[in-house]
C-alpha cells in the first residue's frame, strides 16, 4: 500500500495525487528493471521509526485542554527538540516538548486521529542499509 499525505478527509488534492502516481511509477519501474536482470548496488536510506503515539493534554473529564502549537503545525518529519513549543492551552500557555532526544513528529493534528486520542506520533530518524540486489 501507498499512503501519501497529509490530506484532509474527503478532499482530493492534485499535488498529493501526483506524488502518489510518481511513487507507484517508481515502484513499477523497479520491478521491471529487476525482472530484466538489472543489478542494484548496496545503498543506505534514511527512514523514520515510530516510537510512540502522543495524546493531547486532557482534563479529568477526558476533554482536550490544549491544541497543537502553531510552530509545530504542518511540520511533519521536522526535528522537535527539548523545549520547543508543543501545545498551546486554551488560556494561551505554551506547553513545551520535554524529551531527552530529538524526535520527528508526524501525523500532526490529523482529524482522523482525534478519536484515537492521538495528537501526533513521535518517530526516530534511522538509517536502513540494503545489500546488493540482483535477480538470481
From TrEMBL:
One Pfam family linked to the record:
AstE_AspA_hybrid
Q: Which InterPro entries match?
A: AspA/AstE_fam, Aste_AspA_hybrid_dom
Single GO MF annotation: hydrolase activity, acting on carbon-nitrogen (but not peptide) bonds, in linear amides
Query: Gene Ontology terms, cellular component aspect?
Result: cytosol
Domain AstE/AspA barrel-sandwich hybrid, chain residue ranges per copy: 44-125
Taxonomy, superkingdom: Eukaryota
Q: Which SUPFAM superfamilies match?
A: Zn-dependent exopeptidases (SSF53187)
Identify this protein by name: ACY2 Aspartoacylase
**Protein source organism:** Pitta sordida (Hooded pitta)
What gene does the UniProt entry assign to this protein? Aspa_0
Amino acid at each position: 500500500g501507498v499512503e501519501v499525505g497529509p490530506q484532509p478527509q474527503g478532499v482530493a488534492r492534485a499535488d498529493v495525487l501526483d506524488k502518489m502516481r510518481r511513487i507507484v511509477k517508481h515502484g513499477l519501474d523497479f520491478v521491471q528493471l529487476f525482472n530484466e536482470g538489472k543489478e542494484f548496488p548496496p545503498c543506505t536510506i534514511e527512514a523514520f521509526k515510530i516510537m510512540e503515539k502522543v495524546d493531547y493534554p486532557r482534563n479529568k473529564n477526558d476533554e482536550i485542554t490544549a491544541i497543537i502549537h502553531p510552530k509545530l503545525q504542518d511540520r511533519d518529519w521536522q526535528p522537535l527538540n527539548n523545549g520547543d513549543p508543543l501545545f498551546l492551552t486554551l488560556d494561551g500557555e505554551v506547553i513545551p516538548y520535554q524529551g531527552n532526544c530529538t524526535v520527528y513528529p508526524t501525523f500532526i493534528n490529523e482529524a482522523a486521529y482525534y478519536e484515537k486520542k492521538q495528537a501526533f506520533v513521535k518517530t526516530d530518524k534511522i538509517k536502513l542499509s540494503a545489500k546488493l540486489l540482483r535477480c538470481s
